[in-house]
Amino acid sequence: MPTDDRQGQVTTDAVPRLLRSERIPVLDPGADPSGATVGQVVGENLRRIREDRKLTQHEAALACRGSGLPWTRVRVAAMERGARETVDMGTLRLLADAFGVEVAEFFAGDGDVVLSPRAQQSRSGLRASLRGESESPGIGARDRVLVAPDKSAPVRPRVHGRVIPVEADDALAKRLGVGLKDVLRAADRLWGHTLTEERDARVAALGDLEPGERQAHRGHITRELAQQIEQRIGGECV
Q1: Looking at residue 207, what is its pLDDT?
Q2: How far apart are CA 210 and CA 197, in angstroms?
Q3: Domain housing 214
Q4: What's the domain count of the chain?
Q5: What is the 3-state secondary structure (H, E, C) of 165-229?
Q6: Looking at residue 222, what is its pLDDT?
Q7: Torsion 198-200-204-210 (CA) sign
Q8: Is 27 helix (H, G, I), strand (E, B) or coil?
Q9: Which DSSP string do the residues of 64-116 spell out, in sequence order?
Q10: CA atoms within 13 A on the CB side of 37
Q11: Which is higher by pLDDT, 31 or 5?
């Protein structure tokens, strides 16, 4: 498997074909995220959309319930205040349905959005991603995901400038005593992306959970997926 020893990372040619789809580029600016949280941005735009439609918070809650969100006026008010740090995709989709807008509308405006303690992206970049729009080659740094460096994290492959999350893959490779490339190849054949991405997608699909409950599910899912990869690698070695 070709590698670039000078850079200490897996080259694009070494990454399975399905991992090479064009995605949002990543920069390593060495700066901590400083934008608004997802919850603050969504809350700000929820209030804007509600007021544009001249709805009270009670009426907005009724619209939410009509789309499958069991919200009360108090819940709407809390969301508009930005009381929640993040908002899952299921909630965003139902909010969009409740008010007859696209999900991207909840990221209207200017400024950056904190995606994690170490990453942020501009609102315009998020809107483009949610709409499935391609970002132009000359796009500015503010329209890219900014990631602060973490020296304790494993070296991760990059595709089109995007850092592929492989923390779980790296840990499994070390436990099995195989190369990271072997785990990545097996994961690609099973799901079309890395073990880490598959685990995170399944955890996200569970929706809002208490931190302890989410961590328990995360561990269970990681073990289940790791077992599938181990069986895959073992089968290929037979």
Answers
A1: 82
A2: 21
A3: 9-28+150-237
A4: 2
A5: CCHHHHHHHHHHCCCHHHHHHHHHHHHCCCHHHHHHHHHHCCCCCCHHHHHHHHHHHHHHHHHHH
A6: 92
A7: positive
A8: strand
A9: HHHTT----HHHHHHHHTT-SS---HHHHHHHHHHHT--GGGGG-SSSEEEEE
A10: 14
A11: 31
* 193 plus 231 within the same structural domain: yes
Query: Looking at the structure, do residues 154 and 183 belong to the same domain, yes or no?
Result: yes
Taking alpha carbons only, the member of 152, 135, 45 closest to residue 92 is: 45
Asked which of 108, 132, 162 is the last residue of a domain, the reply is 108
pLDDT at 237 over 70: no
Evaluate whether residue 139 is within a structural domain. Answer: no
232 shares a domain with 154? yes
Q: Which of 90, 108, 126 is the last residue of a domain?
A: 108
pLDDT for 50-65, tens place per residue?
999 899 999 999 999 9
Q: Which two tokens stand for residue 179?
A: 């190369």
Residue 123 lies in a domain: no
Q: Kindly report the pTM of this predicted structure.
A: 0.50
Cα 55 to chain center, whole Å?
32
Instruction: Report the amino acid identity of residue 113.
Output: V
